[in-house]
Amino acid sequence: MTRRNSVARAIVAGCFGASLLSGCAEQSDDTIVVGLSADITTFEPGMISSRDNANIARHIFGSLFTLGPDGEHIPELAHTLEITDDGTGYVYTLNEGLTCHDGEALTAEDVAYGFNRIADPANRFTGNAPGFVYTSIGFQNAEVLDELRVQVNISQRNPIAFGLITELYVHCKDSYEQMSLDEAASNPIGSGPYRLASWTRGSEVVLEKVKEPGNFERIVWRIIPEASTRTAELIAGNADIITNVVPEQVEAINSSGRAEVQIVSGTRRMYVGFNLSEEHAAMPGGDAIQDPDVRRALQYAVDVPTICRQLLSVECERATGLVNTQNANPNLTPYPYDPETAERLLDEAGWPRGDDGTRFSIRMQAGQGRYVNDVNVVLAVVQYLEDVGLDIELELMEWASVYTPLLRERSTGPLFFLGTGGGLWSPIYDMTDIAQVGSGTNYTHWSDERWFERWPDLVNTEDPDEQRVIINEMLEIFYEDGPWLHMYFQPDFYGVSDRISWTARRDEHVEIFEASLR
Amino acid sequence: MGAYIVRRLLQSIIVIIGVTLVSFLALQAGGDPTYLFVSERASAEEIESTRRALGFDRPLHEQYLSFVGDLARGDFGQSLSYRQPAMEIVLDALPATIELTLFSMILALLLAIPFGVLAAINRGTAWDGSITTMSMLGQSIPSFWMGIMMILFFGLYIRLFPISGNVPFLKPLIAGDFGTAFSNLPRTIYHLVLPGIAVGTYSLARNTRLVRSSLLEVLEPDYVRTARSKGIPELRVLVHHALRNAWLPVVTIVGLEFGFLLGGVVVVETVFSYPGIGRLLFAAINQRDIPLVQAGVILLASIFILLNLLVDLIYVRLDPRVKLTGGRG
């Protein structure tokens, strides 16, 4: 008997013994198992904020319109949208015959109730809907026009309101009126294709199909925080899809013969930020980066393609600004790696190398453990910048408790490494990171008048062609003189079992509706 | 003894308040937790409004005193991320960790005693050397590494044991669903094997060395020599005369170890996706879910205090020379 045969027999024997207790056999054909990296905390529509949490909730709660994989708008519970002349009223007409998971008919009253409930300050919700969507669109209220028509009122014309409203979950009045907030957190009553069957906190969430679309009767979302354990479960056939595969395990999965890794260029924009605040200008190196010529010089100093190949195991999609590629200015090309040009531009900008070979010293801050291989990427960036004569004082920080508060106070820097979530459905959505000098997400304090003077034009223009011209103009300014050292769109890694046909999306949404058995 | 127990329990209240204060200050030391509860695009106004909603806008002492006041009324507060009563969430996760801890301790004890005895009675031989070497290895191997290796070999390569997850036994048992509990039991144990070994290896190694050294100490005294000289069989000398006296340090370590393990299995729980209290609290600390962390800390501190008390009481039973002397016992 060969060694290979011995191993095969051992596996069969092991499976036979194990199957008596757990079932080592293949999974049921009507069930799909998804392994997530982070735990979920709530099913309260007003409190959901993390991507993993939203991915599960998305199957339970319907939305009026939704976004397709490429950012296209798709009708869901509503079939038409009309916007009032002043741009502040969004009138949705619902499909007929909709029902909630509690069996009640879903009407405009439910939609308005749910949207207003989330906005109610008495509920003290802090999720994505009240904390981001409502404040971004200036949500006023939702009102019932008739049984099938509901109007969402916002404070002023807003070119991205429609896309943001797709993030609101429709939930059902009768049930939510009867539930306390505690009860609502674990008993979602939605209108989506799946309903919650069970939730074992920290372990798994099981959804059961109640209507189309969906090719599986059950979706089991398992919480598997450790990356190598998720990989093992995928290869063992106990999970069909896993998220956040680490690059080092791609080869193991692809060579297993049981699963493959899908790598997609995500919408998260990775960059090195230049903090241009007065406080940082007074710090070593802070004065140098005030000069757009210095910032432009540094764009040539970092070999982003090599970082991607060596540290992320992929050819990344390069960024030319803060807008995802499909909406970017087509006339702009990523800065090439050209250290000689970088050095020449730094010389010309008045920062020649000193006797010790250093042009200037500067601090760089970064969080760790948040993005794919982030620490190694940061170390590589530091090395490249030092190669052109910068002396970098690197501060790596714990992400959640140290780096995030600094970031939110807009006091990281003068150099800092960050990735911010973007979208495919509108360039303006991506650009709103820097809608105002004082925006919470303008971590750089960039204040170029040429950019900010164009915002009112951008917001008030309804003609798409005219809008495109303004966007391209603004993106060119950002490319040339902007406050980001443009790097890449973070690749996302999904492990997918060979028994499943499923395509990963770029926007970190994990939707199982279209998944099917091969 | 009753007065002693009451006094110890009263003292424990002070300890628990101290523990909550330390954990509260430690969590606050990392900065304003509000940022963890808002979107990355939240404006300054949104952040401020969330801060108010979560109560972080109040002075620290006010936040803490309010928490202690609620605590006195039996209200542990609501988890900030789960939006449910914090203690309810912690208690929900506790049975899984107790299962894992008990399993690993039983495994460790069942093996540590024979290994320790074997090493002691064969002192200086190859047996002793092998067991001592293995014990040192067991204490040196990090549990997370051992967990991953076991997953790869037993879970993936020969597929003998499940890679992750758990099947509850205690939870349905506590809920009075005995049918489910006992029908789950074989699968509960089956799911506990790999994480149980990963958690228990360190204890096994340490207890083996402890049993060995304790036994070596009590194999020499006069009363053992006297027993032998009376012609009592060696096995009886070992069990009735030597081992009984060797128990004292073992009981101390094992008792306290249970408390340590309850809160300290976080790494193994993460590796095996085991939904226990360690993982829950680790996530809560990262999320700065202060009420949840406080509820967990109070529960673990209480268990630890009770175990200490229990160890003291067992001591009295094992060693008649020990007397309980009020608060200094």
Features:
heterodimer, A: alpha+beta, four-stranded antiparallel beta sheet, 19 strands, B: 329 residues, mainly alpha, 13 helices, 0% strand, globular
Can you describe this structure?
- The complex is a heterodimer of chains A (about 525) and B (about 325).
- Chain A is built from 19 helices and 19 strands.
- By secondary structure, chain A is of the alpha+beta class.
- In chain A, α11 (about 290-300) runs antiparallel to α13 (about 340-350).
- Chain A has helices at about 5-20, 50-60, 110-120, 130-135, 160-165, 175-180, 180-185, 225-235, 250-255, 280, 290-300, 305-310, 340-350, 375-385, 400-410, 425-430, 450, 455-460, 465-480; strands at about 30-35, 65, 75, 80-85, 90-95, 140-145, 150-155, 195-200, 205-210, 220-225, 240, 260-275, 315-320, 360-370, 390-400, 415-420, 485-495, 500, 515.
- In chain A, β4 (about 80-85) and β5 form a beta hairpin.
- The N and C termini of chain B lie close together (about 10 Å).
- Helices cover about 75% and strands about 0% of the residues of chain B.
- Chain B has helices spanning about 1-30, 45-55, 60-70, 85-120, 125-140, 145-155, 170-175, 180-220, 220-230, 235-265, 265-270, 275-285, 290-320.
- At the A-B interface, α1, α4, α7, α8 and α15 of A face α2, α4, α6, α8 and α12 of B.
